Amino acid sequence: MTFKAGIIGCGSIAKFRHAPEYKANPYVSDIVFYDRNPERAKSLADMFEGHAADTVEELLNDSSIMVISDCSSNESHHIFTAKALLSGKHVLCEKPIALTMEHANEVVEAQRKSGNKLMVDHNQRFTRAHQKAKEIIEKGDLGQVLTFKTTFGHQGPEHWGVNKSNSTWFFKKDRSGLGVAGDLGIHKIDLVHYLLGDEIEQVSAFQGALDKVDEDGEPIEVCDNIVCSLKTKQKRLGTASFSWTYYGEEDNSTILYCENGTMKIYHDPEHQIEVMTKDGEVIRYQLESIQTNDNQTNSGVIDAFVDCVRSDQEPIVTGTDALSSLKVTLGILKAAKSGSIVKI
């Protein structure tokens, strides 16, 4: 059985990740695009041999569309995703699920009421290295994870966004909302929860708009850097850095310090995982290069989403998972703003 997919929002994330992965999936027969800028929708429809919808209602009311990717800007996720779920669609929502807990709960409630699938695109769970790292941790040879540090940074969304300029919506408070914390940081919060089988419960942080300016040359309205300290429910301690000003190269690395050794993930370009045991043994895994803004590869997200719909399985990243990561991210921003330790 094949079915149509719909995409709401036709920016870079739709163009470089969602659309090509739907196009390559054997169970997707056609893609229908909607964007508030009709030319963008038409452009992607032409590029991927799909169709453009004139209104979002046209897309939502099309009974032949079974799955929808919500690739709109952050402030609209809770609106489009909830509407799509209640219109009978299975939805893959870009992160963050929403900008507030109230709106995020509306989305989760729409999923519960509709009974349809909701997956949120926290794509770090899908890389082979992160999946292998979780497997190594669960095997137990390294013992418990005691402390960790993680980072995610690149040169900024103005180099990635559809208009390639400082006017990007990522720099606008009313549309981006959470700055680099909601763009990159929330991915790593979800990853820490996934790898450790644990949840962050206490945070402190510093943030700033250190370097980025908008189209008028003014400092941007949201943070371009944030550095935080984290404590989990199981008393693990960690640090995290998220940045839009890593101008030399992208950094997407994580280090886990365990009872019996250390695991480095995406720390070495040749070996995606390096394990150093406390008795001196070194084990290296060569798996795959991580997807970056400059190196677009199949993320596996669309295939996993389509598979969970076809087989009626629980999504790899649920709305509840996304709620948990959003709650921590909002706590980090609150801690940075107030200069205090925040309990999640």
Automatic annotation (TrEMBL):
GO terms, molecular function: nucleotide binding
One Pfam family linked to the record: GFO_IDH_MocA
Gfo/Idh/MocA-like oxidoreductase N-terminal domain sequence ranges: 3-122
Protein origin, superkingdom: Bacteria
InterPro entries: Gfo/Idh/MocA-like_OxRdtase_N, Gfo/Idh/MocA_Oxidoreductase, GFO_IDH_MocA-like_dom, NAD(P)-bd_dom_sf
Domain GFO/IDH/MocA-like oxidoreductase: 130-263
Protein name: Predicted dehydrogenase
